[in-house]
Amino acid sequence: MLGAVVTLGPFLLSLMTALKSPKQFASEPVLTPPDPPTLSNFAELFGERYDFVVPTVVTAQVVAVILVGQLLFSVFAAYAFARLSFPGRDPLFWVYLATLMVPQVVTIIPLYAMFADLGIRNTFWALVLPYVFGSPYGIFLLREYFRGIPGDLLDAAKLDGAGTLRILWHVVVPVSRPILATLAIITVVTHWNNFLWPLVITSGRQWQMLTVATSALQSQYNSNWTIVMAATTLAILPLTILFLAFQRHVVRSITITGFR
Amino acid sequence: MRQRRDTRTAYLLLAPSLFGISAFLVLPILVVAVLALQRWDLIGPRTFVGLDNVVEVAADGRFARSLLITAVFVAIVIPAQTVLGLVAALLLNRGLRGSATFRVLYVLPWICAPLALGVMWSWVLAPTDGALNALLGRRVEWLADPVLALPSVAAVTVWTHVGYVALFFSAGLRAIPDTVHEAATLDGAGAWQRFWRITLPLLRPTTFFVLVTQIIATFQVFDSVYALTPDGGPQGVTDVVAGRIYYEAFEQRAVGQAAVMALVLFVLLVAITLVQQRWFARRTTYDLAT
């Protein structure tokens, strides 16, 4: 019970603050509920001065494109590793696994240099390219699952003359829905929350992600807490709703995968 | 014939991820090693300076200090969140009503952006109009006091991760068959004895998994520290390694030196992983099938 208060307390307090007028925030104690609750902070956040419309749209676009790429290319690679025999398979799989050990903070400097050389710094592609081709993590996760698909199922499809893409789409994907949903959730969470790479590779408003916009807002207006808390709510709330809607699934996927 | 077709199909399927992983994970490791030998300010030309950066980083006390700060941070965070997570899991697994709901609530912070949580907590811990001081009715400089800043940031990190750790322990606990505990009770073991002699040893695989993943993750902490204490905190007391690398490269524009630091961090993390894996392999896991 105490745990729940400690866990939820800060969330509720910041949500309450986001719903208060700056005047009420300044004049009344923290614990007083917003009276009346107002969406004016959010309206102001999306207004001309702070313009959170751009980062919200950019974040949604980036996450959507990465999600499609991750799922598609991770399925491809995982199927090859799980179900096809080819020379170099095992060493190659070890290379993929080894890349799991590469920390993000180590790769941002070289990636910045590479993207600067290519002249695509501060573009949509800069945000998306490093992640869109499938992650070693997702490939590993799916491979384990694909290995468990009964061979008869795949052989039957092959006998019917189905090509690899047809087999993937009509046999593998339908029987792998739970694990694909897990990977989808992990991908959305990871990239909605990503901060360091967007912070480094973008500048100015055009391609600003929500996390970066929230951070910039905090450093500029950190006495204006009602606005700042509205921004944090915006950075947190969509995922919280996703989480509550799929809680069973999310909790299960964390225990299966360790979620990273 | 079949074999050759399989090979071609396999490489076609692998092509996108092979490109992605080589270009954005393997190649960067090589590029960072090259950058470590160069001088670059993010815009101008890169000049080769050999081991100058290494010498400068070694001479720069701030990097050594940031390694030390990170080690202290890990040493505060890991025991605290492991013990608290285990306690929470033991309570959750008593089968009380609503345990499932609590389990969900505890994991909630894990899903949220560490940056956003950091910003949220920077308000909770703010000195004048922050929530915690308002509740306590006193003025404590949680984030601006050189003594309190690092423990405060560590506490926020622990808060974020406890539910996640509890979730794993909770799953580990459920994998222990009731019969094991029942047999021990019949043999006259008390609750405390059962915990130390049975539960804890049987949880060893879970404990190692949690420790390995969490130590690696905590060594790379950046987002929440950046939001809570920008610029390394009061007198640089929260200047963790990832933050130092970021500041060095993107604010000081000393890319070469930052690259050296990044390589040191990389080697350190690989070493930690390998040591832990050997340790893991040496320990036998208990077979619960019987």
From TrEMBL, chain A:
Membrane topology term reads: Multi-pass membrane protein
What keywords is this UniProt entry annotated with?
A: Cell membrane, Membrane, Transmembrane, Transmembrane helix, Transport
Domain ABC transmembrane type-1, which positions?
56-246
Mind telling me which GO cellular component terms the entry cites?
plasma membrane
Superkingdom of this protein's organism: Bacteria
Sequence intervals crossing the membrane: 58-81, 93-112, 124-146, 167-189, 225-246
InterPro entries xref list: MetI-like (IPR000515), MetI-like_sf (IPR035906)
GO process terms (BP): transmembrane transport
Location of the protein in the cell:
Cell membrane
What family does the entry list? Answer: Belongs to the binding-protein-dependent transport system permease family.
Instruction: Spell out the PANTHER family in the cross-references.
Output: ABC TRANSPORTER PERMEASE PROTEIN MG189-RELATED, ABC TRANSPORTER PERMEASE PROTEIN MG189-RELATED-RELATED
Report the protein name in the record: Carbohydrate ABC transporter membrane protein 2 (CUT1 family)
Q: Which organism is it from?
A: Pseudonocardia cypriaca
The record lists the lineage as: Bacteria, Bacillati, Actinomycetota, Actinomycetes, Pseudonocardiales
From TrEMBL, chain B:
Topology of the protein relative to the lipid bilayer? Multi-pass membrane protein
Q: Where is the ABC transmembrane type-1 domain?
A: 67-276
InterPro entries tied to this protein: ABC_transporter_permease, MetI-like, MetI-like_sf
Top-level taxon: Bacteria
Q: Tell me, which GO biological process terms does this entry list?
A: transmembrane transport
Q: Any idea where this protein resides?
A: Cell membrane
List the record's Gene Ontology CC terms alphabetically: plasma membrane
Membrane-crossing ranges are: 12-37, 67-92, 104-126, 146-169, 202-222, 254-275
State the Pfam families in the record: BPD_transp_1 (PF00528)
Keywords, in A-Z order: Cell membrane, Membrane, Transmembrane, Transmembrane helix, Transport
Q: What is its main location?
A: membrane
Q: Which family does it belong to?
A: Belongs to the binding-protein-dependent transport system permease family.
What name is this protein filed under? Answer: Carbohydrate ABC transporter membrane protein 1 (CUT1 family)
The root-end lineage is: Bacteria, Bacillati, Actinomycetota, Actinomycetes, Pseudonocardiales
